[in-house]
Inverse folding.
């Protein structure tokens, strides 16, 4: 049942998504992702090491996709991920 609700939620948001500017979509995705990571970490589903591993994997993927998406976009995305990464550095 929960799965059906999430699909309905996406379908209701679809017109907004299709008409939104890329920057707005990116911001929504970033804040959803950050909130999810913070909650998973706070509830101890993911350790600090797990979160750092996820962010490291994302940084590596961005580096590998520079040719496809452009160096400027990937460099900016990596800066954003580095800022998120710093939130978790040194946490036990």
């Amino acid at each position: 049942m929960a799965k059906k609700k999430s699909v309905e939620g996406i379908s209701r948001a679809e017109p907004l998504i299709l008409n939104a500017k890329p920057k707005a979509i990116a911001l929504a995705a970033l804040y959803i992702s950050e909130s999810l990571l913070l909650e998973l970490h706070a509830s101890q589903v993911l350790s600090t090491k797990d979160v750092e591993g996820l962010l490291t994997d994302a940084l590596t993927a961005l580096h590998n996709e520079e040719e496809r998406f452009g160096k400027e976009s990937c460099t900016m995305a990596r800066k954003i991920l580095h800022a998120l990464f710093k939130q978790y550095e040194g946490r036990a």
Summary: Residues 63 and 74 are 7 Å apart (CA to CA). The chain has one domain: 2-88. The two ends are 36 Å apart (CA to CA). The mean pLDDT is 83.
